[in-house]
Amino acid sequence: MTGLFGLLESVASSDKHRRIEVDGLSFEWTLTRCRRRSVGMLFQEGAIRVRAPRWVSIGEIEEIIRSKRRWLIARHREWLTHQDQRLEPTDDWRDGSVIQFLGQPCTLRLSADQKQATWVAQTAEVWLTLPNHASPEQVRDSVHAWLQQQAKEILAERLETLAQRAGAEFSRFSLSNAKTRWGSCTQDGHIRLNWRLIHFSLPVIDYVVAHELAHLRAMDHSPAFWQEVQQILPGFEEGQREIRKAPLYA
Ligand SMILES: [Zn+2]
Description:
Layout: H1 2-9, E1 13-22, E2 25-33, E3 40-44, E4 47-52, H2 58-67, H3 69-85, E5 98-101, E6 104-110, E7 118-120, E8 125-128, H4 136-166, E9 172-176, E10 183-185, E11 190-194, H5 202-214, H6 223-232, H7 237-245
Parallel strand pairs: 2-4, 6-8, 9-11
Antiparallel strand pairs: 1-2, 3-4, 5-6, 7-8, 10-11
The structure holds zinc ion.
Zinc ion (ZN) is lined by residues 211, 215, 221.
C-alpha cells in the first residue's frame, strides 16, 4: 500500500504538517494534492495522510476527516497498541519515550542531576544521567548500556537458578549481541544469551535459558531434547510462543 501511495505521490505536490482535533485527540495530518477525483485517506504512523484534488478546500477536507471519526479513533487505538508492544522506539529517543523492560512498558526520563541510571519500579520509569537536550543517539546509547547491565545481572541469575534446578553445569556465560539468535550453547558448555532478552518477561527469558541448558545434554532438537526442556521448565510453551512472535532486529 505504501509503495503504491509513493508512486501516486510522484505526480503530486505535498505540503506542510497540519493538526486537527477529533474527539479531544489532536492528530497530525498532511495533504498531497493530486489528480484524483475523490479525497483519499490513510492512517500511517500515528498521522493522517490525505490525497485530494485541487478543487477541494482545506475546510472541506477537515470536515471529511471529522466525518470519519469512528474509523480514525479505531485506527488510532490500533496504532497505540502496536506502539505499546514495541521493544524500543525506532528513532524517537527522548524523555517520555517508552521501552519494554522485563515485559512491561517503561518510560524514559532524562535528568542531569542523576548520579547513575536508576529504575523506579513503582512508576515504571528509568532515569538516565542525561540532560534534557541530549541527542536521540545519546539517549539510545545510554538506554542500551543500562539494559546491558541489567541483562548481565538478571540473565546470569536466571541461568544459575535454572542450572541448579536441572543439575546441569555450564562452563561459561556471556552476553551476545547476535542479530539472528536469542541464545546458543557450544559443545564445551559455553552459553551465550542475547542481551535484548531483557525486553521480555521472565517466563520468556526462562524459556530461552532452559532451551540452552537442555542443549548441554542434547545438541539437537530431538524429542529427548524437548523432554529435557520440559523437565527444566514445566510449562515452557508459553514463553516459547511469545519469543517466536518477536522478530530480532539490529
Ligand atoms: Zn536449540
